[in-house]
Amino acid sequence: MLLIAIVVFFLTAAFLFHLGNRKRRAAVANLPGPFCWPVFGALQLMFKLNPKSFIEVSAKQVDKYGELQRVWAFDRLMILSCDLEFNEQLLASQEHLVKHPVYKVLGQWLGNGLLLSDGKVWHQRRKIITPTFHFSILEQFVEVFDQQSNICIQRLEQKADGRTTFDVYPFICLAALDIIAETAMGTKVNAQMAESTPYADAVNECTARFAWRFMTIYLQSEFLFTLTRPHLKWRQTKLIRTMHEFTIKVIEQRRMTLEQEQQKQAEQLDKRTEEEDVGNKRRMALLDVLLQSNVDGRPLRNEEIREEVDTFMFEGHDTTASAISFCLWQISRHAEVQEKLLEEILRVLGVDYSRPITIRDLAELKYMECVIKESLRMHPPVPIVGRKLQTDFRYTHSRLGDGVIPAGTEIIVGIIGQQNGEANFPEHKLFKPERHENGERVSNFAFLPFSAGPRNCIGQKFAQLEMKMLLAKIVRAYELLPLGETISPVVNIVLRSDTGFQLGMRKRSSSTVDT
User: Fold this and answer.
1) Would the pTM of this model clear 0.85, i.e. be above it?
2) What distance in Å separates the CA atoms of residue 99 and residue 90, rounded to the nearest whole number?
3) Which of 289, 374, 375, 468 shows the smallest number of beta carbons within 10 Å?
């Protein structure tokens, strides 16, 4: 009798629950999508999705239902879109800026940093951080790119025998980690020098763990993760504590140094000439900008600064490492692209490896820009972005007409799907850098490797310069060979390859370089 009562209770609750969503279902009735069971939604589709299957399953869904579709999962209404018209209206909006709830998985590490914040806090932090990417500061960052790239070139030499197949990603990842640590915090972590600190190890391990949780639906809940994986929760907490303690220590040291320098400058203002001041000026870092910033009439607290530095570390090393690795793999498989690229690199940079490469040199590498853009088109480091609507979103569409997506809906923008569609990029399966030479596109929103609109990637110029530096130095020093397995893209927070990024390298002879 009790069992019958429980079953009746749950069936009644489920029925009422289903009825409560009538208005939301009616609002999106004009959108196609897979069959959704009452109450449960399209669970048959959810069970098929995992990091390895995501691209294939999504492509089949697009072929079947179109580029804009609705999906229910219990009471969660999700709009899946790789539709240019829809995405442009959403991403350009100044109103719909709240990130998808899945990003909160990163909350314990990144706190209320630029990636996760919204509203007033997001606007304040964005305004503070934007000057960090001014040309004069980027020019100083390029010095770091140059120095750390030289270390990467030295480490790759052990593999450059023309026969060895290896995964280039670990080499690039450590170089990117060294670069982001020095530019964000002004401190060296020596990740490439086999002297890797606990901090560098923690960043790499934590990034991998969060990527896994990101694509495992039930583990996105901190409660369920703690309940079902207590040992991993303990490990995650320990790693985050290691990173937070390191960052706070650097912040305190940097704050003390900055205060001492300001005091010294005040005392010697009349004694020091402008020329001496410039000559002794310390290289700026993101941390310096944050330490000198005010919000609501007060300096940023250490914890607020830590959130932004940690966010910069997370967003700035894994995404760039992925982008560079995909690009190197594509270059290794396209000999004509590599030949044209090498010609430009030698013409602009020359053969003097000891000469530092400047930001102006990098600006001259026009064909390399096309190669990078084409790799980013095919393999965007952030393959999907998400929004959670706080208010109704009204849109217009040439095929579907006008519509309203109700508040509370989760929207998934499939950047990788939009950029690999025939409508926006003809012959999209071919690696064709030349398609970017004239800069003409259907829309400015057709190419979204750094997202677009108010919440676009604030560090995109930084990332492009870093990519240019590492790619230029690697291609100038080594011939990339098409050895090993093909890539197998896997969708996580950052796009990866399940087979790694396998290739070979051969050291270029002086005669090759001199031609």
Assistant:
1) yes
2) 12
3) 289
